[in-house]
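Checklist before submission:
- one chain only
- standard amino acids only
- sequence pasted in full

Submission:
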Amino acid sequence: MRLLVVLITALLGIGALSPSSQAADPAVVFANANKAGGIAYTEGWFGKGDTRLHYVEAGEGPLIIFYHGFPSTWFSWFDQMEALKTHYRVIAVDGLGAGLSAKPDRLEPYKVKNLAAQLDRLARHLNGRKRFVLVGHDWGAALAFAYAQGYPDRLDAVIALSAPPYNLFLDIARNDPEQQARSAYMQRFGALTLNDIRTGNLGAAIARGAYADLLASGSIAAEEHALFVSALSPPETINGGMNWYRANIAAFADIDAADRWPRHARRIKVPALLLWGEADKAFVPGFLDRMGEYAECVEIRRFAGAGHWLTMERPEAVNAAIADHIQANAGSKVRPSESRLRPRPLHCHQPQTAAR
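Returned file contents:
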């Protein structure tokens, strides 16, 4: 009988692997030690097994979900959570493969359509049928735009930083030689094994490339830098992040319509905001001119001199832009229980190019 209990426990992903047995996330400890006011940060878990998600939340009110990119964790949203937690329930997810979330070896869970479905299950778990605001950076931005296309009735607004919609990226990766050159690293990820990552100490190299300049510029403190470096140290974390690329980006010459998700060409119907650093080298800026193909109502805010990590490079301006967009399109004056019933107004603006 004892053996049967042990086997069932293992299969259910409880016992030694249960959230209650996990040590506190060091980034949550830091957040609570450095928070403003009395609203604390708590950890949560959704799902089980090799697709379980870890998330961090604070505050009460209408729901905002933040989704990071690679290489990062939920903590990249700390400044935004601090700014918004007094009026909203803010939740930042450790994306699949990152932070304390599960890191499956198989690629299927990392496909955009499955990530979007998982995100929708998480939102329903947290918020029932009520609509919410989705904010994403990098891969999280591509996923946020795809979710807005694939689940048009679930959002009040969508906000993306530093990346195009997933399907638009596939198009420019297939057809734009400059984008192919900028994204060549994505193709190299497919050839790396977990052992390559481990023996090459790639976690340290990737952390250095992503966060050293932020530390040097004073955008993040030494303790925050250490949190990112520690989170990226396990080879399984780097492998999990690379699995997003392996699962969703074919050899550029082989990309075709079957790779798109959603497959339909319907534009995003909810108000969309795209924040872009003009010194960002990850994507060709020409994609900004094509955003109207993917969203009926999109505002573009450009940040002169800023690079890829807008949340940490320009936190106050990013916080203001996010708050403005939410107030205009999903204001906190609306009670959460009414959110899914009210009509969604569209507040369209001309793209802004002023320095921030």
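Reviewer check: The beta strands are 42-46, 53-58, 63-67, 89-94, 132-137, 155-161, 272-277, 298-303.
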